[in-house]
Amino acid sequence: MKKQSYKGLVAIAVVGAMLSGCKLIGDVEYTVQQDPVQMHGDSVKVSVTVKFPEKGLKKKASAEITPTLGDASFKTITVQGEKATGNGQTIAYKPGGTVNYTDVVPYSPSMENADLMITGTVKKVKKKFLWKQKKLLTEQLSLLTW
User: Fold this and answer.
1) DSSP labels for 48-82?
2) In angstroms, what CA-CA distances link 14 with 7, 119, 139?
3) Taking the domains of the chain in order of start, what are their residue ranges?
4) Mean pLDDT for the chain?
5) DSSP code of residue 107
6) pLDDT for 74-93, tens place per residue?
7) How far apart are CA 66 and CA 128, in angstroms?
């Protein structure tokens, strides 16, 4: 009787698993409070609401989110699933959740015609992935003096 080799089948299964991947974070919705982003005096304020849909963040996953405008990076916030370890804001798996983000940075000339972008990383235990950069607004910075 001839033994059948399962190496080919295992290789196909491994490649299929790698290509389908483990989706740690679902389709996230972003809402920018001021459109266009406004400059007050010598600083720029950004307020963003990030909405995670139902089952949008895996229970053991965490994400670091950083908005950028031109060369300037705003503060990074951390969100995490229900069972993730860390000190970020917890997002429930079943109902999803919302994170409100506000930060102020000093104005720089690179912000004038820059896009407001979101970037970051997603991790689960020891695996870390870059979060696909997303454009929130194509900017014409509004200059207001207070």
Assistant:
1) EEEEE-TT-B-TTEEEEEEEEETTEE---EEEE-T
2) 10, 29, 43
3) 25-144
4) 78
5) -
6) 999 999 999 998 889 999 99
7) 16
CA–CA dist 91, 26 (Å, integer) = 12
Report pLDDT digits (tens) over 107-143: 888 888 888 888 888 888 788 888 778 887 775 555 5
> What gap in Å lies between CA 91 and CA 97, rounded to an integer?
5
Predicted TM-score (pTM) of this structure: 0.72
The CA-CA-CA angle for residues 69, 129, 90, to 5°, reads: 80
Tokens of 107: 């104005």
In contact, 89 and 63? CB cutoff 8 Å: no
pLDDT of residue 23: 67
Q: What is the pLDDT of residue 139?
A: 59
The whole-angstrom distance between residue 25's C-alpha and the CA centroid of its chain comes to 9
The answer to whether the beta carbons of residues 61 and 84 sit under 8 Å apart is: yes
Task: Name the CATH topology of 25-144.
Answer: Immunoglobulin-like (2.60.40)
